[in-house]
Amino acid sequence: MSVKTQEPVITRVSDLPTSEARWVALKKVEYVDQVGTARTWEVAVRKTRSAKAGVDAVAMGNIILHPSRPPATLLVIQYRPPLDAYTIEWPAGLVDAGEAAEEAAVREFKEETGYDCSVTSVSPIQAADPGMTNANMQLVMVEVQLKEEDGEEPPLQRLEDGEHIQRVIVPMSEFYDRLVEYAKQDRTIVAAKLFHFAAGIHFAKTNRYGI
Amino acid sequence: MSVKTQEPVITRVSDLPTSEARWVALKKVEYVDQVGTARTWEVAVRKTRSAKAGVDAVAMGNIILHPSRPPATLLVIQYRPPLDAYTIEWPAGLVDAGEAAEEAAVREFKEETGYDCSVTSVSPIQAADPGMTNANMQLVMVEVQLKEEDGEEPPLQRLEDGEHIQRVIVPMSEFYDRLVEYAKQDRTIVAAKLFHFAAGIHFAKTNRYGI
């Protein structure tokens, strides 16, 4: 197991023909709009979506429960080449062919965090970034129930080759504030879906509209 | 002004070379990871980001206030070619060169909804879909203060050619439930950021963890 650690560095960025891409393709969509006008739209699509699953990815909104510690959530920090930055996200992963969202969530959560979890709810299918891509996902809420003797350090991960994922456990009472602090750090960016969920909680607790 | 309305239909989908794309490009990123291994990643990037702004887009989390009606939020429904579906989103738009997030938010909100708004907060920069793209955005919370005599119908929009955007006003008390209902409709998908914000509010109000 390699322990050498250094800051990731981008060495080259080049145009990629769709024919040579393995994961992502660029498509031109020609369509006729609501008033009968022929138009085009440029779309990035994942090549990996299973026709059976119909959904690209799951993200695991998670609550870590312990008898004597406050409810918390586990966030993952990893270098993301598309942004050349470290991102703060909930654990997430692509859904395998023939896999249900709940199954993918439990499998990916175990791989990325080391924890066994139980699913408490599964969201409808959501569009990741509707103006640019057909990528979609489901938010699966999960719960980890620890025992009194379980320590604060998460168990061993089972990462794939090339995955370097740091885990942090944040008390839910500090969730939103910690994301705002992370966003101020150098070379660090919070993922939009995670931030929006935390912002929703923050809004519910602080808004002056009586909502 | 054209009034003819029909269901949009996709007539052709074809591979798009990055050299011919105007809005989106496909790139191969070569990088050296944390343990010194050379790796590659496939990335979709927007060609339109202003170097000055450093952010692609803003979304407007909005609260519509009226003296005698409950606080509400305005959602936009539009056909999105990448998904071949109607999406439910908060109003959003690309940031122009030299424009601050607050300015883009007020301008785009007026164009898409017809309403003047005031900005109440601006989020940190967030990554739209970190595994696939460098696209980023800021959530700008805005407020619309209506007068007693203002009706329930929003004012005229100022849409660009080809934009067909339907507006619906949803009481905040029904926000989450209405999104879940929309997601069940045919050819309709809720945008992930919007859903996550509403799910955060829902979580804050209903969770059994005392959070």
Automatic annotation (TrEMBL), chains A, B:
GO terms for biological process: nucleoside phosphate metabolic process; ribose phosphate metabolic process. InterPro entries: Nudix_hydrolase, NUDIX_hydrolase-like_dom_sf, NUDIX_hydrolase_CS, NUDIX_hydrolase_dom. SUPFAM superfamilies: Nudix. The keyword Hydrolase applies. It holds the Pfam family NUDIX. Keywords: Hydrolase. Residues 55-193 form the Nudix hydrolase domain. GO terms for cellular component: nucleus. Belongs to the Nudix hydrolase family. PANTHER family: ADP-RIBOSE DIPHOSPHATASE (PTHR11839:SF26), UDP/ADP-SUGAR PYROPHOSPHATASE (PTHR11839). This is NUDIX hydrolase domain-like protein.
